[in-house]
Write a structure and sequence with these properties.
mainly alpha
Length: about 350
C-alpha cells in the first residue's frame, strides 16, 4: 500500500509539473497570439443572455444587436478615456510650466535639510549641497540625454503600437460578430465532446473565481483612486486627478502601494514646516491603506478560495515571469493549474473505477 501511494504521489507531482509547464508556455507564448479571440469570446459570453432575450422578443439578428452594443460601449469608453486624457494632459502641462517654481522650492527644501544636517552632524553645508546638487544635475542630464531622446525616437514605435491596437480592436469586433452569429451551431456540434465538456467545467469555475478576483481588484482600485483624488482635491492640489489616479494604479502592485508617494510627501511637508499637509497626507495614506486591507480579504480571499499569502506569491511570480500583466496572469495561471489538475484527477479516478468494475 505505501508503494502504491508513493507511485501515485510521484505521478501526481509529475502531472502537476507538466500542467504548470504547459500553462506557463500557453500564457507566455500562446496567449498574445489568441488574446483578441479570447476577448471576443468573453464579450459574447457576457452579452449573450441579454442579446438572446432581445432576439426572441424583437426578432433582430444577434450580430446586429452585438454590433450595436459594442459600438455604444466602446464609444462611451472612448469618450471617457478622452475626457480623462484631456484632464491628465492639462495637469501635466501645468506641472511642466511650473517646473521652475517647484525646482526652486525643492532647492529651498534641500537648503533647509542641509542646515539641519550641519547642526546635527557637524557637516560642512557646502559639501552636502555640492553632493546633493551634483546628483540632481546627474539625474537631470540623464533625463535630457537618454530618456527624452528615447521617447522621441520611439514615436514611430508608439504609432505602430496604436495601429496594432486598432487592428486588434477590428479583429475583436469581427470575431465577436461571427462568433455570436454561429454560436448555437458551434455549441451543438462540440457539446458532446468529452474534451469540450472538461474545458467548459474548467472555464466555468475559472470564470466564477477569476471574474470575481478581477471585479474585486477593480472595486478596490476604484475606491483608492476616489479616496486619493478627493483627499488631494480637498487639499487644493492642482494635480489631484493626475496624482490620485497614479497612486491608485500603483496601489494595485504588491510591495508598492499608496505609501510610495504619500509617505515621502508627508516627510517633505514635515521638513518644510507644512505640518497640516504632512498630517493630511498621513491620514490619507491610512484611510486608503485601511480601505484596501479591509476590502481585500473580504473580496479577493473569498472569490479565489486562496489564502492572501498565496495570492501575493502568485502576483509576485506573475510580475517576474510576465511583466506588468502578471498582476492578472499570475493568479489566473494558478487558477488554471488548480482546475486542470482537478479535472485530471477526476478523470483518473473515473478510469480507476471503470478498471475495477472490469476486473470484478
Amino acid at each position: 500500500m505505501p508503494e502504491i501511494r508513493t507511485v501515485w504521489n510521484k505521478r501526481k507531482i509529475i502531472r502537476i509539473l507538466g500542467i504548470t509547464a504547459a500553462v506557463y508556455a500557453g500564457m507566455k507564448y500562446l496567449l498574445p497570439l489568441v488574446i483578441p479571440f479570447l476577448i471576443a469570446g468573453i464579450l459574447v459570453k457576457m452579452t449573450r443572455p441579454l442579446i438572446e432575450k432581445i432576439h426572441r422578443k424583437l426578432k433582430i439578428k444577434r450580430e446586429w444587436l452585438l454590433a450595436f452594443f459594442m459600438i455604444a460601449f466602446f464609444g462611451i469608453l472612448l469618450l471617457f478615456v478622452y475626457f480623462l486624457a484631456t484632464k491628465f494632459l492639462e495637469q501635466f502641462r501645468a506641472f511642466i510650466q511650473n517646473f521652475d517654481v517647484y525646482y526652486q522650492n525643492f532647492q529651498y527644501f534641500v537648503d533647509d535639510c542641509c542646515e539641519g544636517l550641519e547642526q546635527t552632524l557637524g557637516l560642512h553645508i557646502s559639501d552636502v549641497k555640492s553632493f546633493v546638487y551634483a546628483n540632481i544635475n546627474k539625474i537631470q542630464d540623464e533625463v535630457q540625454m537618454t530618456m527624452i531622446p528615447k521617447m522621441v525616437g520611439n514615436s514611430v514605435g508608439y504609432m505602430m503600437q496604436f495601429i496594432k491596437g486598432a487592428g486588434a480592436f477590428f479583429i475583436i469586433f469581427i470575431s465577436s460578430i461571427l462568433l455570436i452569429k454561429d454560436y448555437p451551431k458551434i455549441r451543438e456540434k462540440i457539446a458532446h465532446q468529452p474534451l469540450f465538456q472538461a474545458a467548459v467545467r474548467v472555464e466555468k469555475r475559472i470564470w466564477e473565481m477569476g471574474g470575481a478576483y478581477l471585479k474585486a481588484q477593480l472595486i478596490i482600485m476604484g475606491c483608492v483612486i476616489v479616496i486619493c483624488v478627493a483627499g488631494l482635491w480637498i487639499l487644493k492640489n492642482p494635480y489631484a486627478l493626475l496624482i490620485g489616479t497614479v497612486i491608485g494604479l500603483l496601489d494595485v502592485l504588491p510591495f508598492i502601494g499608496t505609501g510610495t508617494i504619500l509617505i515621502p510627501w508627508a516627510v517633505i511637508s514635515l521638513f518644510t514646516k507644512k505640518f497640516f499637509h504632512a498630517a493630511a497626507y498621513v491620514v490619507l495614506f491610512l484611510i486608503a491603506n485601511t480601505t484596501r486591507e479591509f476590502l481585500e480579504p473580504k473580496l479577493i480571499g473569498k472569490s479565489l478560495g486562496l489564502y492572501p499569502i498565496a495570492i501575493l506569491i502568485s502576483v509576485y511570480v506573475g510580475l517576474y515571469l510576465f511583466g506588468p500583466a502578471g498582476v492578472i496572469e499570475g493568479p489566473a495561471s494558478v487558477l488554471l493549474i488548480m482546475e486542470i489538475e482537478r479535472e485530471a484527477q477526476a478523470y483518473e479516478q473515473k478510469n480507476s473505477v471503470v478498471e475495477r468494475e472490469k476486473e470484478i
